[in-house]
Structure formats: C-alpha cells, structure tokens
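Researcher: Hi, I'm a grad student and pretty new to this. My advisor asked me to get structures for two proteins we've been looking at. I'm not sure of the right format, so I'll just paste the first sequence and hope you can take it from there.
Model: That works fine. Here's the first sequence with its structure tokens right after it:
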Amino acid sequence: MNGRKWFILANEQVRGPYDREGLDTAVAQVTNPLIWGRGQNEWLTPEQFEKMLIDLESTVNRQRLQNEREWRIRLGDQELRPMFYSQMIDYLKNQADLSQFLIWTDGYNEWKEIYQIHKIMDDLGVSRRRHPRVPIMGSIEAEGTKGRFSARALSISEGGLGATEAPQTHIGDQYKVILKSPNLFAPLHATIEVVFAGHDGYVGMKFTGLPSESRSAIIEYVKKFTNAGTGTAGHTNTGITTGDR
C-alpha cells in the first residue's frame, strides 16, 4: 500500500489525496464519507473499503498460484484447449476483438468476460486509456433510435463514460445522453457510442459529440484525481461544489 493515495467524497465535495494514515484520520472527521483510489470502479463506504483491502490481499496471494493453474477460453460455442496464464495472455494479445471471449479457471463459479478481470486487462494493456478515467456519482438518461434507458454513472473521462444498471445495449448503439451529478456544476449533455456492453449491466461509452463547456468541466474534474499521481495536488480540499440546479 506504500505510495498509494485515496480521496474522500463528503457533503458533495472531493477531498484528498491522502495516504493510508491520513485517510483514516480524514474519514473519522466527516459524516457518511465515500472513498476512492486508483483501481476502484466506484466510490466505497468505509466498510466496503476495508473489505476491498482484505480481498486485495487475498488476491495477491492467489496471483502467486495463477501461473500454475490452467485457464479456459470460450469463443461462442467453441472452447479452446486449456492454457497456462502466460500462454493465454500471449494468445489474447493477438486477438482484435476481446469482447467476444469468455474466461474460466478454478475458483470461478461462472464464465467471465475479459473486461471483468482487471489483472488480465492490465496484462493485455486494455486498461491503459488515452484519457484518465475517474469515478463519478450521478444518473444518466439516454435516448436513441433503439429507445431510451436510465443508468447509474460510475466513471468519466474526457473520452467517455462508464455506467451500470443499464438495460441490454449493444456495441455500436448511439445515444444522446444527459449526465446529472452532484460533482458537476450543471447537467452534462453529449452524444455517445456504446463500445462495451457487459452481461452484468455494465456499459462503456465513448463520446462522439461533446460541447466545449462540458469538456472543460470534465477536464477540471479529472485533474483533481490525476494530479495526485504526480504529487502536485497536495492535501487540500479539491471538491467541486454545486449550486442550485
């Protein structure tokens, strides 16, 4: 955990970054805080955060054994021969469309999409984005030729959005969306294209049309997190307060 930094969301303000000791102190000083650090998909309560740390330690121990396990890959109705982890990574690196593959190994209770397994994403370089993605709380309303849907926002970058609790969508679908978030001054309007649609309701969207004022608001919001990685943010209140909407 050395060198890692975390942020707190409390009273619609983002505070941080904090090291582990500073985080414990800051959490104790506010009411109903939520916590986020690099690698998390969303804000967590202190109880969820502590559980995540325990799970992370267990994951590190399991990773020592992963190269000794056999992994299975399914493409549609076809299941490939079992592979060791390094063989699987080499195979997947040569595939153009990773969204079509499902993965299974001992300990899984179901086949999983590659995008659900962060370790594999990291080793494939899939998670390295052109635009840094950070967590955000809010609701998304989308409308397009395939109909309308509502979803819960999880993450945002200058390049797109991540959301959950979305109905069945398909890669390539296009929508006009409105994002309302207590972390932004005003609702964000944009057009998007679905680039990933998971079986669990997760949907990844890239912006295809974004007004300049919305882009500027996103850039400023993202900076408050990414500056922490360069050591330039300092332990100051980095929140975006909101007015009446």
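Researcher: Oh nice, that was easy. Here's the second one.
Model: And its structure:
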Amino acid sequence: MAQLYVYADTHADAMSDVDQTLTDLVRDEIITSSHKQTLALAIEPLLPCAVKIGVRTPLSIVYCEAGGRRFRVGQRGQFMPGSWRANLRTKRFW
C-alpha cells in the first residue's frame, strides 16, 4: 500500500482558510475540483476545527480528518463508506 502523504495540517477558523488550501491543491493537481467541492461541504459545518488532508496518489482517494470526524472522498467527489486502512507497520493512519 502506498504511503499516505499529508498535504494540509492546519487549524481553520473560517471557510476562507480551507478554501485557499483546497484551491492550492487543485492547482497543483493533487485533488480534483470534485474533491474540493465535496470536502468544502463536509468541513464547513464543523468549523472552527483542525483540518488534515492526505492523499496516497494524486487525483485518487482523498483522506480528510476535520473536527474529529474522518472522511474518504473518491475520484468522482463521492463519500466512500467504510473504515480507513491503517499503515500495517505503524498501525497509524497518518
């Protein structure tokens, strides 16, 4: 399994903080615009909170932890049910 790379690990007080980070990730072709829209809708009700966004391979499944909740977003911007798979060596997600 590929390593999970963390691209954003910050505390966001307003949606503008999260939106700028997501826009940068779309520009760098790490996530798609569908990922951005879905994550923005999921994170907004939880603000202010700590936000962590990770990806194993660019433009694939996005892993997000915000306000103590975990989300997985697929390639077409849809939430993916089920639990995350931890790194088998460390037994940790991040």
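Researcher: Is there anything I should tell my advisor about the second?
Model: You could mention this: Strands lie at 5-12, 49-55, 62-66, 69-73.
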